[in-house]
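Example 5.3 — Phage holin family protein
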Amino acid sequence: MVHPIFTILIARPELVMDHVAGYASLVQEEASTAGMDLAKRAIAWAVAALGLLLFLVFTGVAVMLGAVMGEFHWTLVVVPGVALVVAVAGAAMARQHTPSKAFTELRAQLDADVQALRTLGAKA
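Solution (predicted structure tokens):
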């Protein structure tokens, strides 16, 4: 006996194509969402790295200026401190774990389709 899916494939191929197009749309939507999360984390890591680099440069300049001037000035601490705060904030944002909900709708749809095919196969 022929599985009911083959009967549908032969009799109504447009239904199968619509179903496949729906899958393609769902994959595109969920990949876009996952890509945006990845891009946000990459930008946050870049901000953290730039902040750390600026902190190191400004700290070196502050040490040299402090040695040449021979006296303490509050800006020699504040300027590198601001860069350090930016670096820490960027690293904290980058380390935040986003909920791993990538492709959950696609998995649910695939599971529903597999269950429907098993049900049809059991009836045949």
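Remark. The mean pLDDT is 85.
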